[in-house]
Specification:
Helix content of chain A: 40-55%
CATH class of the largest domain in chain B: Alpha Beta
Structural class of chain A: alpha/beta
Number of domains of chain B: 2
Largest interface: A-B, 27 and 31 residues
CATH superfamily of the domain at 10-131 in chain A: Lumazine/riboflavin synthase
Radius of gyration of chain B: 23 Å
Helix content of chain B: 10-25%
Distance between the termini of chain B: 45 Å
CATH superfamily of the largest domain in chain B: Response regulator
Strand content of chain B: 15-25%
Order of helices and strands of chain B: EHEHHEHEHEEEHH
Strand order of the largest sheet of chain B: 3-2-4-5
CATH class of the domain at 10-131 in chain A: Alpha Beta
Number of strands of chain B: 7
Strand order of the largest sheet of chain A: 2-1-3-4
CATH topology of the domain at 10-131 in chain A: Rossmann fold
Radius of gyration of chain A: 26 Å
Oligomer: heterodimer
């Protein structure tokens, strides 16, 4: 039985043209939604990278909400449709990882749907509360080893140096003069 | 390009059993452009694997790196400096990349995270199709630039089998356009369909892979050596 005290961490990636404004409207219209939901504004849900979603879970989120414009109403035409495909892909990946795909959901709201946003946010939070914590142990992020090793930088520098010599050799000033 | 696809997480998780710390190595060439093993895919897979192994109670520490070309020794040799701390390398390169890593680092286990599929090209957004089987004896000259070996499921050499539908689709799989239907259409368009009537001897398959591992030797590119008598 999940702990009733469990307060989930939920990250909502919100498109600034619609869902972000809807969340704002929910606040100014005094429609309450759970404080466990933290909003990250994006220029469009099409900016949602699958890596962002996974790293969010890895860094301790219990649920991720991707909130975009209504279908057919994307300010960039198809950003929310790309987001939908990526959410579906990551949902499958979550199942393979051993996390429930219900932890990730995409919703579509317009900027005027403040009450609906609050309703969906509360509903999602309840779902996550029922699912409970992810069970992941929080650890420091692993290292990312730089792409360019020192050696190739040196190689590149020596190539540059060689090119400089070539350029020097065909310097227009030297044309017609005897090469010592 | 060489087109590859990621193995299921479960399969990779099984490979990583008993490993404490692993270095994931992506490749910035073919598998990066087919979205299977570039920087982004390395990040995604490693994140997924860290969580999957953690949830399974056997957490594996996974560091990430990408080399520009995993199949060439010059691009991977620097990895050797830090391999002491890892139990294995998880390669997100093609089969060639995995073997280059294995050849370069004989004391380190190298595991494949991808299934290498074919030599092909993107035919649309998010779609890749096979275009070459490396038979070693290219006949595109005679077939209008369309390869019946890689694009016809029956590898027919003398025209369509008769199973092509009205729309030029293959009977084996309607998703496959009939290679010979397209060869004819293209040669007709170029007004060179007469060339299809020429008789060619049977294809020489000895250059294909039936003779085992193939090798190309270019003396002009090798390090010169002094012969006896040279002074």
């Amino acid at each position: 039985m999940p702990d009733t005290e469990f307060e989930p961490q939920i990250i909502a990636f919100c498109c600034m043209h619609c869902a972000y404004a809807a969340a704002d409207l929910a606040g100014s219209s005094r429609h309450e939604y759970p404080v466990s939901l933290k909003i990250v504004a994006l220029p469009c849900t099409g900016r949602t990278d699958m890596g962002h979603i996974l790293k969010t879970f890895e860094d301790g989120a219990d649920g991720v909400l991707v909130a975009g414009c209504l279908t057919g109403r994307c300010h960039y035409q198809s950003g929310n449709l790309y987001a939908k495909q990526r959410v579906e892909y990551v949902g499958d990946l979550l199942e393979q990882i051993g996390l429930q795909h219900e932890r990730l959901r995409m919703i579509n709201v317009s900027a005027g749907m403040g009450a609906r946003f609050a309703e969906l946010a509360s509903e999602f939070t309840e779902t996550i509360k029922l699912l409970g914590p992810t069970g992941l142990t929080k650890k420091p992020r692993s290292k990312e080893i730089p792409l360019a090793p020192e050696k190739s930088t040196k190689l590149m520098q020596s190539t540059l140096a060689k090119n400089e010599q070539i350029i020097h050799w065909v310097d227009p000033k030297s044309i017609g003069k005897s090469v010592a | 390009m060489i087109v590859a696809d990621q193995k299921p997480i479960e399969d990779i998780k099984q490979m990583l059993r008993g490993k404490r710390k692993v270095l994931a190595v992506g490749c910035g060439t073919c598998v990066a452009v087919c979205f299977a093993g570039g920087k982004r895919e390395v990040g995604l897979l490693c994140s997924a694997l860290r969580m999957a192994t953690d949830l399974a109670g056997e957490p594996v520490e996974i560091d990430e790196t990408v080399v520009q070309r995993e199949c060439e020794q010059e691009y991977i040799e620097h990895l050797g400096e830090r391999l002491d701390e890892y139990d294995a390398i998880l390669s997100l390169g093609c089969g060639v990349g995995v073997q280059s890593l294995a050849d370069s680092f004989p004391n380190t286990r190298v595991l494949p995270a991808l299934n290498t599929k074919f030599m092909g090209a993107p035919s649309g957004q998010g779609v890749w199709e096979e275009r070459c089987q490396g038979c070693g004896n290219c006949l595109l000259e005679y077939t209008g630039g369309i390869c019946p070996i890689s694009r016809c499921p029956k590898q027919l050499m003398n025209g369509p089998c008769g199973g092509t539908d009205q729309g030029g689709r293959c009977e084996v799989d309607p998703e496959i356009p009939c290679a010979w239907y397209n060869i004819w259409a293209r040669m007709d368009n170029l007004n060179i369909q007469d060339e299809l009537m020429e008789i060619h001897p049977p294809k020489d398959w000895s250059t294909s892979r039936d003779g085992g591992m193939r090798r190309i030797v270019r003396k002009d590119l090798q390090k010169p050596e002094l012969d006896e008598g040279d002074s």
